[in-house]
Inverse folding.
């Protein structure tokens, strides 16, 4: 095996560049090195001006998402050897504005997320004296998959609908809405439905399914969205057919 | 250009017109969407067929003659290919949209997919029996 691999990194320096360009670096090709290790090597040894985000290095924090060879990936969980002999292209996550080099602006998601109220909503809070809300293993299993999201934004980068229509609420936010809807302790489904039934909500999705394919945590946002559509459709039919008292 | 003005110097990358050719999965998705047009055509064609049958022997014969024309055969072969794509893709997506529980346990996706093919086979067999007998 060659002992080096070429990494082509998209660079954008807003103070100098009118648009992003490419810069090439040759880095050691080690079997235990990820794309993030390569970038850190560049930053520490070759070019300290390179900007990128990371934190945990173990697929937990969700901050190191990048497009590697055109696919949204966690760069800390993507091994260089999978792209040998190279070169391997590293770009900022697609569909988000680029702030600098590999750093993208995810404010749009941070603004959308609270709109779907991803927290437990109760009609009436129990007092602490009443004790905790108990949950059976089955009740936990009902939503657990959707609770694994690490907000890495790979699904937004993979979603062509979001790319074409940035108003679309998007995969992770809807999966998180579903996570709370399915939680036996929650009573806020109605409030979330009001938000997600809008045109930019679940019906924006055309079921491309890429979000599910790229999700590193197997959240299956596409599944969550289709289940939500089914729920929304049932509600609409009920609202149409049943007098108010029976809904 | 597509860059924002003012203080915001972040760069917005335009989505290329041919984005759906960039990935196999995007391409399959667009073809799946396109297949709906062919579904609509075959439904219409079926209705025309039923009408021809209803109008008697001569109309039925005319319909068959038209159906044998090369351009209609070509169109229907293409439409059939799209129908197969439509069926396969949507069947395989169903378990994601539908969670079926039997006695508290989630039915595995593969069983739901198999169920759909079994139902399709049953309906096909019934229609074949109806037509042939
Ligand atoms: S749903 Fe998956 S891909 Fe999307 S933000 Fe959450 S963990 Fe990342
Ligand atoms: S650095 Fe935390 S997920 Fe990659």
């Amino acid at each position: 095996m060659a002992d080096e691999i070429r990494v082509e990194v998209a660079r954008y320096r807003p103070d100098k560049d009118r648009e992003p360009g490419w810069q090439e670096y040759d880095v050691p090709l080690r079997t235990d090195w990820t794309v993030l290790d390569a970038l850190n090597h560049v930053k520490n040894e070759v070019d300290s001006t390179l900007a990128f985000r990371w934190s945990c290095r173990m697929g937990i924090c969700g901050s190191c998402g990048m497009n590697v060879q055109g696919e949204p990936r966690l760069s800390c969980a993507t091994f260089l050897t999978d792209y040998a002999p190279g070169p391997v292209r590293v770009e900022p996550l697609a569909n988000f504005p680029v702030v600098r080099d590999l750093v993208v602006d995810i404010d749009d998601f941070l603004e959308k997320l609270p709109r779907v109220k991803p927290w437990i909503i109760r009609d009436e809070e129990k007092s602490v004296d009443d004790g905790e809300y108990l949950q059976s293993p089955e009740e936990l299993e009902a939503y657990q998959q959707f609770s694994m999201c690490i907000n890495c934004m790979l699904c937004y980068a993979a979603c062509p609908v979001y790319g074409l229509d940035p108003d679309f609420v998007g995969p992770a936010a809807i999966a998180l809405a579903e996570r709370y809807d399915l939680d036996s302790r929650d009573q806020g489904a109605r409030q979330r439905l009001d938000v997600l039934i809008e045109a930019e909500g679940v019906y924006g999705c055309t079921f491309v399914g890429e979000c599910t394919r790229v999700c590193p945590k197997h959240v299956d946002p596409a599944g969550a969205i289709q289940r939500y559509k089914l729920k929304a459709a049932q509600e609409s039919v009920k609202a149409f057919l049943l007098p108010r008292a029976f809904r | 250009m597509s860059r924002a003005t003012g203080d915001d110097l972040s760069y917005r990358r335009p989505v290329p017109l041919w984005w759906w050719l960039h990935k196999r999965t995007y391409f399959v998705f667009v073809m799946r969407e396109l297949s709906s047009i062919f579904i609509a055509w075959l439904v219409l064609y079926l209705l025309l067929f039923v009408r021809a049958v209803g109008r008697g022997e001569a109309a039925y014969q005319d319909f068959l003659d038209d159906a044998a024309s090369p351009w209609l055969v070509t169109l229907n072969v293409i439409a059939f290919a799209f129908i197969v794509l439509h069926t396969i893709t949507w069947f395989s997506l169903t378990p994601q949209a539908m969670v079926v529980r039997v006695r508290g346990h989630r039915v595995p996706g593969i069983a739901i997919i198999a169920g759909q093919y079994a139902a399709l086979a049953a309906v096909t067999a019934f229609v074949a029996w109806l037509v042939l007998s």
Observations:
- The interface with chain A takes residues 1, 3-4, 8-13, 15, 19-20, 22-23, 25-26, 29, 33, 93, 96-99, 104 of chain B (CB under 8 Å).
- Residues A 149-155, 171-172, 175, 215, 217, 219, 221 surround iron/sulfur cluster (ligand 1) (CB under 6 Å).
